[in-house]
Write a structure and sequence with these properties.
By secondary structure, the protein is an alpha/beta fold. The longest helix is centred in the last third of the chain and has 22 residues.
Length: about 425
């Protein structure tokens, strides 16, 4: 008997939170209920979610940016259907799958100094791959990372995490990983001077705080890493695929790191996917005919992930979403700017680039998140001392107006 997924959903309507409380993460269920977020979504389209009562919500979290092209994009759905219907031979292991080759070619075309691609299933796997490749290629143990950084939840990634809230109870971590302050070229040179550092891994814009160093610093970091034989790794898992108004945030700085890591938006949120773009010499120092698979992942290069990524890149280009991210980011700023004077103290500024933005606020950001959801049906996220907004790149001017009007309404309420 073939599973009827629609019937399964109908027969279990309303049971999601009970099932999760009994058999999955009950603590998350309790949190969602306490915070007022225990909603059941039954449909999604573009930047919108719809609950079982038909109410529409504006999603400005986008699963941490994974749904950059919006949810259930028709062109992506068609490609996935076509791929399933093609009955392709996926994950043969002892072959060179065509879709993976095409995708690798199209990715390196966007960063042509990086001629090789390693595929995996997530952002944190891309970070783990970068650490292993860097150590193997250089023969060095040291990994530098930045204070405040977040690179994922697995052990290598946590070992280069600069945020204490993710670390308690999970140590000890991978040795020889140590932090430096982002933006401090002198501290970086001192850390590199011992000659034992395999890689310096950085988020060019930190995903948790939206902290960003200057273009001058990134050029210094690039030159210092080259001078000391250290591999410079840009973690663009959050910033990549157009989020900041360029396909890669490194384009804002004019630097060419030795590795670029991608995930999240790369597959349109449809299939788990990660990739590390690597300079040829570094890659071939690790992967050789004598040892062709020193690192790998069972489900990497599966045909659905490859097809989803190819479709997403096509949608980004066809719909000019990189340019749209830059334009809509400026629109956000233009519409929010008048509130700086009107709600001085409550609203203190906007940080970030493109559609990776944070509102610096003078009230507990949790209050804004709860208020935006409960009163205006807008999903956002609190991060540090600001409200982070990560809408799909397809966001419309009407959506921007919806958000800005809602924020103004809450500021007015808080001001009394």
């Amino acid at each position: 008997m073939t599973l009827d997924i629609q019937a399964l959903l109908r027969d279990n309507a309303g049971a999601a939170y009970d099932l999760h409380e009994k058999h999955a993460n009950g603590a998350m269920v309790q949190f969602l209920k306490m915070a007022g977020f225990a909603q059941t979504y039954v449909r999604a389209e573009g930047p919108y979610l719809f609950d079982s009562s038909g109410n529409k919500y504006l999603d400005f979290v986008s699963s941490s940016g994974a749904f950059a092209i919006g949810r259930n994009h028709p062109a992506l759905k068609k490609v996935l259907h076509d791929t399933i219907d093609a009955d392709l031979a996926s994950l043969v292991q002892l072959d060179a799958p065509l879709l993976a080759g095409i995708l690798a070619e199209r990715l390196v075309a966007r960063a042509p100094w990086l001629e090789k691609v390693f595929f995996c299933n997530s952002g944190t796997e891309a970070v783990e791959a970068a650490i292993k490749i860097a150590r193997a290629a250089t023969g060095r143990p040291g990994i530098l990372y930045c204070h405040g950084a977040f690179h994922g939840m697995t052990y290598g990634s946590l070992s280069v995490c600069g945020r204490e809230e993710f670390l308690p109870s999970f140590g000890p971590f991978v040795p020889e990983c140590r932090p430096v302050s982002m933006g401090d070229a002198s501290a970086l040179e001192e850390a590199l001077s011992g000659g034992d550092v395999a890689a310096f891994i950085v988020e060019p814009i930190q995903g948790r705080t939206l902290d960003e160093a200057t273009a001058a610093y990134w050029k210094q970091a690039h030159d210092l890493c080259k001078k000391h034989g250290t591999i410079l790794v840009f973690d663009e898992i959050f910033t990549g695929c157009g989020r900041t108004g360029r396909f890669l945030v490194l384009e804002h700085y004019g630097v060419e790191p030795d590795m670029v890591l991608l995930s999240k938006a790369l597959s349109g949120g449809a299939v788990p996917m990660g990739a590390a773009l690597v300079r040829r010499g570094i890659f071939e120092a690790v992967f050789s005919p004598q040892r062709p698979a020193p690192h790998g992942s069972t489900f990497a290069k599966n045909v659905l992930a490859m097809a989803a990524c190819l479709a997403t890149l096509q949608i980004i280009d066809d719909e000019k979403l990189v340019e749209r991210a830059a334009r809509m980011g400026e629109l956000f700023r233009a519409k929010l700017e008048p509130m700086l004077a009107e709600y001085a103290g409550l609203f203190q500024g906007v940080r970030g680039r493109g559609l990776m933005l944070g509102l610096e606020v003078g009230v507990p950001e949790d209050l804004l998140v709860v208020g935006l959801f409960a009163k205006h049906r807008i999903l956002t996220a609190p991060v540090g001392k600001h409200l982070k907004i990560v809408p799909p790149l397809i966001v419309s001017e009407a959506d921007v107006d919806w958000f800005c009007s809602a924020v103004g309404d809450l500021f007015k309420q808080f001001r009394g």
